[in-house]
Every structure is written in C-alpha cells, then in structure tokens.
Amino acid sequence: MRRFKIKKYQVIILLVGVLTISYSFKSKFFEVAKQLEIYTTLYKELNMYYVNEINPAEFTNKAIKNTLQDLDPYTNYYDEQEVEEARIRREGEYAGIGVSVYYDEKGITLREIYKGYEADKKGLKAGDIITKVDGQPLQNMEREELSQFLKGTPNSTVSIEIDRQGAKRTLTVKREKVVVNPVPFYDMIDEETGYIILTRFNEKASSEVKKAYKALKEKGMKKLIFDLRSNPGGSLLEAINISNFFLPKGSTIVSTRAKVKKWSNTYRASNNPLDLEMPIAVLVNGRSASASEIVSGALQDFDRAVVLGERSFGKGLVQRYRELNYGTQLKVTISKYYTPSGRCIQELDYANRDESGNVPKFSDGTVTAFKTKNGRTVYDGGGVQPDIKVGYSKKTEATEELIKSRAIFNFVTEYYYKNPSIASSKEYAFQDFKKFQEYLSKTDKSFKTKQEKMFLEAFESVDDEKLISREYQQIKKKLNQDKIDEISKNQDYLTDLIQNEVLTRYYFKEGSFENKLAQDKVISEALKVLKNNEQYAKILSGS
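RE: above sequence
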C-alpha cells in the first residue's frame, strides 16, 4: 500500500512538472504572438491614417534594428542587398573593379585600389571620388543605393566620372571577378623563418594558409611567424581547420555551449596535421577577434606556439545565419565558445548593461585561472593574453575617435599628391608626425572628439550666437589643442598607421607587408624568440 502511495505521489509531481513546462511554453509563445499582433495592428493603423506616406521597408527595417540594438552587436538583420554583401565577405569573391570604398554625400570615394584589377589597370587612385555612373549623379544618395553601382555581372562595362583633386575625368571600366585572398602576403624573413599573414577567415582561409605554408617549406622554412593581428575573424570551421594544421588529430580545438542543445558541440581536429614540431610564433593585437582567438587560444592551450603582441579583442560569441522571408537574413548569436583549457575569452557582458546602457567587462570582475597542457596558467574573461607583450602605448579616447574618422586617409591623400615618390617599401619610414598634427589642427574637418561634438551641439542650440561668438572661438581652440595633445600620446601607434597607409598608396598592400618584415617591432621580437631555442622552450614549459 505504501509503495502505491509513493508511485502515485511521483506521478502527481511529474504531471505538475509537465503542466508547468507546458504552461510556461504556451505562455511564452502567447506573449510573442501578442507582441507581433500589436506591431501589425499598429502598422496598419499608421499606414491607413498617418498624414504622410510611410515607406514600409524603411519603417520595418528601423523597427527591427531598434529591436536588436540592446542585444550584442553581432546579432544583425540583413535586407536583400546586405545579404549579398555578407555573402561576399564569407566567400571572398565578387564581380567589381577591384576597390574598397567609402560612401558619402559626394559619391563613392575609392579607399584602396587592389593591384592588378581593373581599377589599377585604368589608373584609378585612392582618394578619387566617383561622382557619376552611366551619367547618373551620385550626390546625396543613400549608402544602399550607392553600393549597387560598381557591382554587376563579370565582363559588363560601366561609364564612371571621377573627381581627382578637383579635376574631372570620364572613363569606361569593366567589371571582373575579384577574389579577396585572405593570405595577401607570405615570404621568408631569413634562411629558416617564414612569415604568413592571415587577414580574415573567409571560405578560402585554410586552403590559402596551407598553400603559403607549403610554398615556404619548399624554400627551407623551419620556423614560422603566423600573423593574426587585426584579423576580425569569420568562419568557425576555417579556424578549426587551421588549428588542425599544427595540432594532433583528435585534439579538442574549441567547444560551444548554446541554448539549443544541437548547437552545443565539441570540435576536434579531424585531419592529419601539417606539422607538430616546427616552432611557431602567433601575433595578435586588440583587433584580433573571434576565429583569430580560437586559433591563438588553441595553440596557446596546447603549448604549441608562443603568442606575442597585445591582448586580443575578446569575442567569445558564435553567430549563425538564419534565413528569413523574402531573401532577408538574421545573423544571430547562438552560443559561446571555449578554448581547449575551458576558457571563454568574451570581454563584454552584453546581458548586464547598466541603466545608462553601458556594457560591463568580464575582465573588470573576477577572472578564472585555467591550465595549458604543460601546466601554464591562463585566464578567461577578456581576450587571449599574449605570452610576451609587445605593443603600443595605451590608446586614448581621442585616438579611438581619430581612427574612426577619415582624417588619416585624407591626410595621406594630400601627402601622396605632394610627394611624387618616397623611399623603397622596405626602407620607407614616416617621419612627419608634426605635419600630421598641423593638418588635424588647421585643415581636417572629419575628426571630432566627443567633447567637441557636445560643445558644437550646445553652441548651435543658443538663440543668439553672436553673444558668445568670442567665447566660442576660445573654447573651440582649447578643445582642438586638447585633442592634438591627447592623440600625441599615441604617436608610436599612429605613426605606424600612417606609414602603412602611405605604403599602400605607393606600393599596394604588398609594400606595406614588405615594410613590416623589415621594421615591425612585434615581428622583430618574434624572430628573436624563435631564434633562441632555450627561451622558446622555457616559455612553453611554464618553468
């Protein structure tokens, strides 16, 4: 009799649990359906009665973007055109004229010319502004419209009018297949040390790294510097494949934990490696993110490579594309990833914003220690910490704003036309930082600090500007000097940025990379470590 009561009690608990889960699920589903119905009803009423016309696509696009903005910045909605742009980034191929661009009210400004493609063949230069395409003026067009003009089917032609330093010119260019090589440069630094730079993890990443590796091996490579600096990441699969090149088959490379069980996985090396003995130095900086951190984190956890540079960005989140109606897509964060030792290197805690919307950092709280294969201590919360720190002065807020602006691009454009030639790619060194400061102070209009923007807004809100015009000029001058002083604290970092931009203008990206092999301090330090077998082994042993 007692056994029957226990079973009956257990059944009642089970039923209550099932009913609770069922009710919770239905309640949640009802809430979602309710909110969607409210939005639909609202839109119908606005469309029918609002005094002005409403653009359905623009209205909905804004609503979706606002919905997503309080999540993390990687969860995004893409309309039909943005879906195509995302595909190009993933696959690394498109039909165009071989340029990267800025879009603004003047038209399409050419940011970089790719060597050997149509734009290069026709003599186009960075800084040129395309003002008309097939007779259509481009001034004051939306970015979405401008992005359509240069892309098209291979071998199709288009007439463009360009403005180069005030001079107009019209020419016809042919679209062609453009392949974005994620390994734009590799070479031998000396008789036994090879260098490979990987700039993105698109679908060609692992095959191009493998191709570069084999080519350098044939040249006698016995040590490798693998440069992942400023690599924003990309394909998780490509990160796994590249890690597998240097880790034993069966090694755990990364694991993911998601809300949906089937998306929680452990990814292991499934192929035979290229090499398990070659000394490797991996370079990272504050702009090395996501897949870059998976590779550097895995090689560090297995004590397979020495990591040099600056702490990486700290993106421990994984996204997946989900198809929506009418050719649109959602890129949604589905999981967090963990390195082989168990670290999640996510830096920003988007789930716990404060009342002002500020995002806290995991690294500001308690971080957890983990152990590498050889027992070295590594930490979670805030990117991959390099084994050897080599970097620049800490960037000021003003410098961060400067980088976001076009000030460096515009300065180098002016510099290019004032200097018909410069030293060779390996020997060139930018030594005109004072001229850059003067340019920012007297000529540039694109770089404004937060303080300047706030002050300008306050000034424009005054009814009688004449009353404070004198004070305005004094404060404006002071704010301008303050920002010059602030960015000057990062002269080392900014000099390198300007130098790379200058070299790209004269010698394409290849020239910038050649210069790095000769002058870059992080590469120089990596070379020293690889040449010192005792130091290399000591770092990885943890002794």
